[in-house]
Amino acid sequence: MRSGLGLTRYSVSDEIGVGCTTLVSMAVMVSFDLTDGRHFAAGFPHDLFTELRRDSPVYWQEFPADFPGDHDPGFWVLSSHASVQAANRNVELFSSFEGPSLSLLPAMNGTMLVSMDGRDHIRQRRLISAGFTPRMVARLEEQARGWAVAIVERARERGTCDFVQEVAYQLPMHMIADIMGIPAADREWLFGLTSELLQGPEMSTDNRSEAFASMQIQMFDYAQELGRRKRAEPQDDIWTVLSTVEIETDDGERTALGEAELDMFFFLLTIAGSETTRNAVAGGLIALLDHPEQLARLRSDPEVMPTAVDEILRWSSPVAYFARRATGATEIEGVPIAQGDRVTLWYPSANRDETVFDDPFRFDIARTPNRHIAFGGGGPHFCLGANLARREITILFEELLARSTELEILAPPTYSGLTIDNPVLAAVSSLSVRIA
Ligand code: HEM
Question: Which of 120, 125, 195, 324 ranks highest by number of CB atoms within 10 Å?
Answer without folding.
Answer: 324
